[in-house]
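step=encode ok
step=design start
structure_in=
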């Protein structure tokens, strides 16, 4: 019998092996990440594991996928439920920026401290908003909805095994092997020819829309390792001649405590794809949609801390408009130093971050989730062009309740999960006194 946690760990390994075979640069990213972590631990033995043991950090991954409909979202939610991964958070990536991202997202992940410690695999999952008139007029929506309704991303065989795994808390070895193979295959890059005219119509609106609705299968968009020093990794990847996006998304590197999440990636690579032309002929070509993301995780912030973070990001935007990436980073540093406590004591005293108590010692709770602005920034940095949308029209409504109804599952509030973890540790400490 392979229980839920064993299935999740095995799936993460299977997906990583598959993705590495499809995107060799991912293997380079993993190798560099592993070296960065080992070197950081050697240089900072007293603090390197403050936000997680090195074995967990080095094994940690998050994936990203994109689906087109509520039904597809519900079926992939069932697949992840078999792995003990529940939907956490609502992220609206449509935003106000010029770059066109007609998607909303959630993250599937373990929700308990114990499950995260066993294997913290997460998948950031975006779903296309086809009825948002800023992007799709009524006629194009009808075509797009018909195209999406005519495909099946997650077959009945894999969904049935997922239902059994969720119901019974795991699968017998033979069924587990079958389920893992089927589930991994759902995210392989298809060799089926892409309808070039249809794909390019969607691309004029959004490269993300084309990646979701312009093909008949989904795929892993990126698979992300975790590092302890993302600035070191950025330098090492650049030194290897790998083109990175212009900046590291999220907070700056500074002398104080790391909070939330810092992310960057190598740029989307041109991958061989086959195209079907209008005359029915099939020709070779390339698409650049998959990239190599990497992340450095910090301390989870309370609602008060998150409000401060969001306000400071707005201030940084205003002060750094028109600047280069290096100039913008200096503005980030100036703003951070002027507004954040310089140590964990200050964060705790100001009620800005979540902590727990282990054997009477206060330790920070790691941020396990995502930042919509950073995710949008990573996606946008890997698009060939900004796309288009009509800002004079109203966007369609999407929220956490819509996601929950689409999946038939509770969408957890990440703040509530962190608060519950902090409270449980306080209660346990009180009981021992």
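sequence_out=
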């Amino acid at each position: 019998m392979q229980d839920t946690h064993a299935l999740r760990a095995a799936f993460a390994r299977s997906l990583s092996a598959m993705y590495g075979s499809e995107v060799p640069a991912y293997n380079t990213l993993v190798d560099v990440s592993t070296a960065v972590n080992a070197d950081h631990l050697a240089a900072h033995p007293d603090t390197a594991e403050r936000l997680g043991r090195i074995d967990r950090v080095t094994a940690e991954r998050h994936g990203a996928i994109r689906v087109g409909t509520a039904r597809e979202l519900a079926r992939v939610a069932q697949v992840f439920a078999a792995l003990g991964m529940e939907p956490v958070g609502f992220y609206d990536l449509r935003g106000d920026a010029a770059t066109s991202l007609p998607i909303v997202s959630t993250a599937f992940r373990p929700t308990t401290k114990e499950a995260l410690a066993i294997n913290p695999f997460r998948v950031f999952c975006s779903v296309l908003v086809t009825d948002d008139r800023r992007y799709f007029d009524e006629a194009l929506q009808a075509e797009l909805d018909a195209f999406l309704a005519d495909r099946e991303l997650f077959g009945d065989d894999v969904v049935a095994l997922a239902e059994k795994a969720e119901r019974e808390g795991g699968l017998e070895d033979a069924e587990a092997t079958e389920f893992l193979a089927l589930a991994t295959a759902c995210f392989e890059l298809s060799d089926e020819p892409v309808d070039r005219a249809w794909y390019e119509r969607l691309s004029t609106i959004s490269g993300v829309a084309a990646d979701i609705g312009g093909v008949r299968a989904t795929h892993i968009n990126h698979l992300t390792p975790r590092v302890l020093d993302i600035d070191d990794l950025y330098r090492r990847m650049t030194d290897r001649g790998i083109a990175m996006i212009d900046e590291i998304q999220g907070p700056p590197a500074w002398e104080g405590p790391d909070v939330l999440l810092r992310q960057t990636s190598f740029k989307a690579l041109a991958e061989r794809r086959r195209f079907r032309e209008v005359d029915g002929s099939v020709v070779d070509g390339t698409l650049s949609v998959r990239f190599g993301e990497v992340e450095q995780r910090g301390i989870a912030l309370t609602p008060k801390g998150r409000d401060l973070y969001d306000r400071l990001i707005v201030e940084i935007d205003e002060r750094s408009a028109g600047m280069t990436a290096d100039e913008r980073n200096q503005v980030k540093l100036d703003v951070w130093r002027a507004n954040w406590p310089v140590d964990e004591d200050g964060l705790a005293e100001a009620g800005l971050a979540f902590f727990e108590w282990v054997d009477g010692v206060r330790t920070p709770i790691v941020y396990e989730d995502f930042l919509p602005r950073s995710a949008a920034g990573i996606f946008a940095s890997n698009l060939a062009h900004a796309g288009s949308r009509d800002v004079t029209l109203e966007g369609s409504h999407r929220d956490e309740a819509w996601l929950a109804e689409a999946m038939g599952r509770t969408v957890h509030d990440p703040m509530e999960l962190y608060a519950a973890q902090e409270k449980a540790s306080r209660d346990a400490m009180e009981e021992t006194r």
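step=design ok
step=annotate ok -> Residues 360 and 430 are 10 Å apart (CA to CA).
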